Every structure is written in C-alpha cells, then in structure tokens.
Amino acid sequence: MARLVVHGGTPLHGSLEANGAKNAALPIMAAALLAKGKVTLRRVPNISDVWTLTGILKAMGCKVEYDGTGLMELDTSTLTTTKAPDHLVRKMNASFDIMGPLLAAYGEGEVSLPGGCNLGSRPVDLHIAGFRKLGAEVNSQKGFVRATAKKLHGAHILFPKVSVGATKNCLMAATVADGETVLENCAREPEIIDLANFLIAMGAKIHGVGRQKMRVTGVKQLHGIDYSVVADRIEVGTYLIAGAITGGDVTILGCVPEHLSSLLDLLKEMGQELTINEDSIRIQGRRPITPISVSTEPYPGFPTDLHPQLVALATLGSGTTTVTENIFNGRFMYAMELVRLGGDVRVSHRDVVIRGVKQLDGAPVDAPDIRAGGALVCAALAAHGESTISGVNFIDRGYQEIEKRLSLLGAKITRADFED
Ligand code: UD1
C-alpha cells in the first residue's frame, strides 16, 4: 500500500503552474459523447478519476487517447454499448455525468448508482427528475439506473436544490433535445461555466451561462472541437493553504483568481498576505493565523471542497474558528485525523469548531476522501516530525502527482510502499 511520508516544518517556497480542473475535465469528457467528430482536450489533469472515466468510455467502445501529459483525443462515434461498466462507475460519483449525454445522443443509457468519496448521502434524484422532465423514462432498480427516450424534448426544469451534478447532466441532455429548455436554480460553479463554454464551442445554443437561469435551444447535433480545460481552483486553493500553513511564500501561475474569491477573502481575514494578479496568486504565510467563522455554500460562496484544508490551517490559529458544512452531511471524517496530528478539532452536527494550538506533531493518518487528503497533507507539512498518510488512492483521484508538485516547492514529501 502506498503512503505519503512527510517531514514537516519546512516553509514552502516557489511557484507552480495550475493544472486543469478535475470537476470540469470529467463532465467535458462525458460531453464528448454528444459530438459527431473528434474532440481534442488540453490541460486534462493526470489524476486517477480521469483514467477511470477514460476506462469507462473505452469499455463502451469509444476511442480515447491520453498519455497523462494534458492532451486527450476522444472519438465517441465508435461507441458499441450504452451500458457503463459497473466496476469502474463505482469508483467515482462523476461517472453519472455520462447519463445525460448518452440519453441525448443515443436515446438510452444504463449506469449503476455511482460511488466515490464518502461525504454522506449522494443521491441522483435531481438528475433523474430532470431527465424525466425532458421526456425520458427512467427506472432505478437493483443499483442500476436505466433511462430511455425516443427523443428528448425541451422542458422547464426548476431544481429544488442547487446541484452541480444535476445542472451539468440536464444541461448536457438539453443541448440536443427538441425545442427550448429552461433550467432554473442552476449551480454556477466555474466548472459548469467551463462545461457550458465547451458545449457552446461544439455548437450548442446556451444563454445565461453562469446565471441561475439558463436557456438552452436544442440543436440537431454537436461537432468535435479543440478545447482547453479551466484551471483547478480547488487544487490551487489547497496549495495556497499549504503555503500559508507552513509560513511559506508560494505563487500559483495560470489560474483564475476570481474563481477563488471566497477563499482569498478568508485567507486575508486570517492575516495571510496575498498578491493577486490577472492569472496568478502569491501567498506569504503570516502569523498569527486569525480565527474566522465561515459556512460552505454553492458558488460563489466558500466551497465545500476547500473546507477540510481551511480547517487544517485553522488548527494553528490564534483562537477559535468555526466552519459550518452546508453541502455534504458526512464531510467530517478528516477531523479525527487532524486530532491525531495534535489539532483541537470537534464536530457537532454540521459545525466544526477548531481551537488553535501552538504546534502540530507528525503522526500516521489516513485520508478518508480526496479533499480530506489535501487537508492532511497541508497539516503534515506544518507538523513537527514525520507523518505517514495512507488513503493515497483518494488523494490521487484529485491531485496530480502531489508529492512531486510539493517537492518543487521544497516540501520533504515522498511516496513509499508499505506492507500492511
Ligand atoms: C460536485 C463536485 C464535488 C463538489 C460538489 C459541491 C464533481 C465531480 N464533484 O459534486 O467535488 O464537492 O459538486 O460543490 O463535480 N443532491 C441531491 N440530489 C441529487 C444531487 C445532489 O440531494 O440528485 C445533494 C447532494 O447530496 C449534496 C448537494 O445536493 O448534498 C450538492 O450536491 P451536488 O452539487 O450535486 O454535488 P456533486 O455534483 O455530487
């Protein structure tokens, strides 16, 4: 079993180029199912979720060429089955992204209920309700969701709750439906905007991109294109927090600072020094780390995917910080692991209360999900002595070569195989 071995206490210094966003690359790969023609993607991150979706598409007969250096070529015209392989779908929640495109382009899809990070319940009822509005028949039994439709038709879909996944899936399905679809109470995350821009570049007609209400006029078919994926704001945010927690000086290049506004405001409030340019962010870690109070919200609010990392930073704060989790009811498994590193972190319902301590100390810890892994790496980088982090398979799902990237910033972090 691989683990990360971290010798903490070294301030990080230097600069890194941002990678493409996991949560944009995955739905964009899925949306390639809608294209009649070859799709070329650039800045695709080399993370295991991308390889999992590559495996799913290949198992369904699509041609996908990807060597992990950012460039991906997809030809989905060779698809031989609309049934996704269960053993791969179970590996990540985002695999359900293929359902909307399959339904729209092929009139049917069968995808098992997705797996992925254990952040609490991950239902897909909002996706299914949207597909039904668009005219699909959807049956869910024995862990599989099967959807069919002779032809999808435009509809008015008001999401009762803001959902990134349901917004993406219904948006993709609506692009080639007959007539006009109005999507209301949409999620507005930058990755949804990136997906919408990709669909528009393929010939889709979408108005209101980035707003709560989007209007989609169905077109006959979408064509292949060449597209570059937006920067990963969550990866960027994690490395900024790593810079802050170690008292370092880190610059992330090639990112979109506006996408991180909520985090950047909080980091300033926490006393960290930021220099923000058009496409780069520099952080200089300062002491004291001032306590704050924050709640996770849909974009443009503070993202749930940066919650654990921010808590890691607050463990070394000069007072009591509270973080309220409003998106996922089970995103707290990392808290006990931060306690192992010496943090004073308590969870009560949806609130995490962090009383700042003077120092963290290295310990063996286990990453229970992707962003928890990011948080534990940040904490371990600041802790005195050696930490070993297991659950690296989760970290690899969302962070490209994390030990190599952090080593470039001077971190003492390696990957090693352990016999369990
Ligand atoms: C996406 C991101 C994930 C991020 C999350 C919130 C991807 C691949 N993943 O996940 O990293 O943490 O957005 O920003 O992009 N819900 C329902 N019914 C549904 C769908 C969702 O009740 O049909 C609930 C969820 O349980 C959750 C909330 O709605 O409580 C938000 O989920 P959603 O925005 O859909 O998140 P994901 O798309 O799963």
Description:
- The protein has 420 residues and is an alpha/beta fold.
- The protein has 14 helices and 25 strands.
- The termini are close together.
- It is globular, with a radius of gyration of 21 Å.
- The chain has a four-stranded mixed β-sheet with strand order 23-24-1-25, covered by helices on one side.
- The structure holds uridine-diphosphate-N-acetylglucosamine (UD1).
- Uridine-diphosphate-N-acetylglucosamine (UD1) is lined by residues 23, 26, 93-94, 121-127, 161, 163-166, 187, 303-305, 327-328.
Oligomer: single chain
How much of the polypeptide forms β-strand, as a percent range? 25-35%
Q: What ligands can be seen in this structure?
A: uridine-diphosphate-N-acetylglucosamine
Major β-sheet strand ordering: 23-24-1-25
How many helices? The count is 14
Number of strands: 25
Range of helix content: 25-40%
The helix-and-strand class reads alpha/beta
The averaged pLDDT comes out at 96
What is the radius of gyration computed over CA atoms, rounded to a whole number of angstroms? 21 Å
What separation lies between the terminal Cα atoms?
7 Å
pLDDT below 50 for ≥5 consecutive residues: which ranges? Answer: none
Which word captures the global form? Answer: globular
